Amino acid sequence: MRRNAPLPTLDEIRDRLREQGITALGVAPAEVLDRARSALNERRADGLADSMEFTYRDPERSTDPQRAVDGACSIIVAAMPYAAGVEPEPVRPGWARVARYARADHYEDLRRALRAEARLIRAAGHRAVAFADDNSLVDREAAYLGGLGWFGRNANLLISGAGSFFILGSIITTADYPRSEPVADGCGTCSRCEPACPTGAIVAPGVIDARRCLAWLMQKPGTFPVEYREALEDRLYGCDDCQEACPPTVRLSPRSAVAVGASGPSHVDALELLASDDETLLDRHGRWYLADRDPTWLRRNAVIVLGNTATPGDEAVVEVLERLAEGDEAMLAEHARWSLERLTERGRVEMLGGPAR
Ligand code: B12
Ligand code: SF4
Ligand code: SF4
């Protein structure tokens, strides 16, 4: 008869994961995430979820750990930092910004480390499956219940003593691990993130209206809402404003920098992106969420970035936008016309001595 390996203790798991850059660990009971279930259903009903699917597609599933792992007892929750400090970033005309979490494949690093631990738990005769940013589980609520941190007013989970520049993952398992206690609110009287959101998407403490959240609008297929195109500024993928305004996140994130692996570039040349074919773009950015694996949405965002940030009168930019404006892709053509108008308007303001923005 084959004997099982011993079940790894939480301390053993913690030590190994720390070597992989995972700096916070806790345990939540594998029970239904009631609060998240109500929030998903209510926000979907109120329209705050817009057309997002993800965990919203099937809240009964994404809030029930038993649906992910039959007989689950514990959720081991884990957080991995991704931001090496919060230095101000150089802004170059026509370059498009990538949010910090998306500059390297941090999710893959996190999943790989958690999967290795899940294998060891399975070797001890239990069921165990690793998840990170998966539609099967609402990660923040699990992390909160597992004592990793508190929900900020900007809806992000702030890790105690380290801020919110962290991604989250978990191992759902039938093994019984000692539970952690949830952490008390740490925002106190602060509310800095709310006015810092460029589109007013934080509609109540901890509640994001996806219809206004740039992070979602950049991922959402179709036309980018005209009323938020200027607010997009130079963003190509992801938005960090509500975290960069957060005092504990800014103050404490350099401390986590020791554990951070190599990060990728913070900006992408929008003109070069528009000159690239689908294969090249998927090769470079395919790990991002691109609806239907279609890089058109990145091109759309890059076109808006050119209107917002390129130097008015830059001939190379105008040429590319004019070509797109007359092209067969109706959606891109409309965005290119908007950007040409925006460049003209910015040029006029600049001539009158005002700021080009
Ligand atoms: C859908 C999604 C999005 C959507 C919607 C975000 C949202 N707030 O729901 C969009 C595309 C906009 C998005 C953006 C971002 N996302 Co996102 N996203 C997800 C995903 C796939 C599901 C989230 C979900 O189910 N939300 C459901 C709603 C109901 O949850 P909630 O907004 O957190 O609501 C809770 C609070 O309101 C709280 N609550 C209830 N009452 C009260 C009262 C008070 C006072 C407070 C403060 C809170 C509170 O309870 C609710 C339920 O848990 C998860 C991955 C996953 N599988 O979980 C990643 C995830 C949440 N995203 C993540 C990241 C990194 C981001 C961005 C920072 C990326 C970026 N730089 O652009 C932004 C941050 C935007 C923001 N301020 O929230 C991380 C968050 C890490 C962290 N430390 O919190 C996650 C966990 C991915 C991961 N595994 O690391 N995301
Ligand atoms: S991610 Fe950006 S747009 Fe979304 S809530 Fe935060 S600051 Fe606002
Ligand atoms: S900015 Fe202030 S209110 Fe917002 S999440 Fe950070 S600490 Fe909380």
Summarize the structure.
This protein has 357 residues and is α+β, with helices and mostly antiparallel strands. The chain has 16 helices and eleven strands.
Sequence of secondary-structure elements: HEHHHEEHEHEEEHEEHHEHHEHHHHH
Bound molecules: cobalamin, iron/sulfur cluster
Q: Based on Cα principal axes, name the global outline.
A: elongated
What is Rg? 22 Å
**Structural class based on helices, strands and sheet pairing:** alpha+beta
Largest sheet: 4 strands, antiparallel
Strands of the widest sheet, in order across it, are: 1-2-7-4
DSSP summary: helix tally: 16
| Overall number of structural domains | 2
Number of strands: 11
Average pLDDT reading:
94
Residue share in helices?
A: 40-55%
Q: Which regions contain 5 or more consecutive residues with pLDDT less than 50?
A: none
Multimer state: single chain
Strand content: 5-15%
CA-CA gap between termini: 73 Å
What can you see in these coordinates?
The chain has 357 residues and is an alpha+beta fold. The protein folds into two domains: 10-83 and 102-173, no CATH class; 193-247 and 258-351, no CATH class. The radius of gyration is 22 Å and the shape is elongated. The strands form four sheets. The chain has a four-stranded antiparallel sheet. Strands 10-3-11 form a three-stranded mixed sheet. It has 16 helices and eleven strands. It binds cobalamin and iron/sulfur cluster (2 copies). Residues 152-154, 187, 190-193, 245-248 line the site of one iron/sulfur cluster.
